[in-house]
Amino acid sequence: MKRKQHEKPQDKRDYENNGESWLRGKTIGRGGFSRVSLAMTRRVNTRRCNLPPIMAVKWAEILQSDTLQEEREVLADLDGCPHIVHCFGDEVTFGNNELYFNLLLEYGSGGSLAQHIKRSNGGLPESEVKRYTKSILEGLVYIHSRGYVHCDIKPANIILVPSSTFAFSLSSRKRTTRSYCYVVKIADFGLAKKVQQKKLKSGWRGTPLYLSPEVVRDGIQEAPADIWALGCTVAEMITGKPALSCKVGSDVNCILFQISSGFSLPEVPSEMSDEGKDFLNMCFMKNAELRWTAKMLLNHPFIAGDGWETMALWGERRDYETISLLRDAGVKLAIVSNFDACLRIPLKDLIDVTDLFDAIIISSEVGYEKPDAEIFKATLDHINVEADKVVHVRDDPRANKVGAHAVEIDCWLWG
């Protein structure tokens, strides 16, 4: 679904058809039979107490809402994945003498990835591309594991959801100003299908510039097709323009011919790192059976590289979602400040916590407790992490002798 580029006069219906516990706002996107509007939750006690203050409501006339209702079923099957747009439910409303089906969705206030790329005026930094790509891949792993193919992966169908963070610089040891770090989520499942589902009469679904050869040539649209589209998306993030080179205003049939014949293939950006180029080559394998899977690509050096990025979430969201956001943002260091019990518990509850981060920083600043070896050992046992996985922030010189060193934690000077 495309988001509008310029403000247009709002249809009267945009402000009607309010839900039981939400008010419809302005239109922010339009599709063939549906549109997307902002919605604000009513400040009253209702049965729907799980709605956020602001949502995106995707809606259509009830008689033209088959695709939207199918999308609702897909999102229900994919519920629980942090890399996929969250659906808060659905509701039928009445207005203008019509019934409307409404899908209540998580709002990406950062806009779409396509808009973000356009604002960059020439492409995004590779470090940012890696972070976004990893999140998209983890979403695709989940989608494919649940037996679905998205069928329309492209920048316009990836939304940016902000997360308030504080960033730390290893070189300067200084905390930067508060900023917003966006995490990306896969959205728009209107064309999604089950794996090996009977193909459409048209033979394919999606957007021509992101279709793989086997989709156009043979009408086979399975998980490898999503990987091809991901490669096109990654290349577009780097260059700021579509990966498949074609003239402005090219006929769709001409584009499809180029893809099916292999006459024109997506371009691998010359400015990418060698690892990035190899990553795209794995996405653009002509033979779908040889194309890497999402799970394989997560272990590619381009995504799972050795570079360390550090970031600590600041605020009150010290829960499982906080740790997940750190991981999804490409952060390789988890920080346990002051042996914070609120943070240790969710770390302990994570499965294979040692695989999530390259290292975990702990602090010897323990309030009124003495930083002895037992305190450090208890912390490590609590989060189930080996000492060689930990870097110690030396807030108290006593900890070097009787604390961190006693359990073989390396000291790392701060400030």
TrEMBL record:
Biased composition (Basic and acidic residues): 7-16
Binding positions (ATP): 58
Protein kinase domain mapped to chain residues: 22-303
InterPro entries given in the database record: HAD-like_sf, HAD-SF_hydro_IA, HAD_sf, Kinase-like_dom_sf, Plant_MAPKKK, Prot_kinase_dom, Protein_kinase_ATP_BS, Ser/Thr_kinase_AS
Protein's recorded name: Mitogen-activated protein kinase kinase kinase NPK1-like
Keyword annotations: ATP-binding, Kinase, Nucleotide-binding, Serine/threonine-protein kinase, Transferase
PROSITE patterns: PROTEIN_KINASE_ATP (PS00107), PROTEIN_KINASE_DOM (PS50011), PROTEIN_KINASE_ST (PS00108)
Region described as Disordered: 1-23
Pfam families, sorted: Hydrolase (PF00702), Pkinase (PF00069)
Family note: Belongs to the protein kinase superfamily.
NCBIfam families with a match to the protein in the record: HAD-SF-IA-v1 (TIGR01549)
Top-level taxonomic group: Eukaryota
GO molecular function, one term: protein kinase activity
One BP term from GO: signal transduction
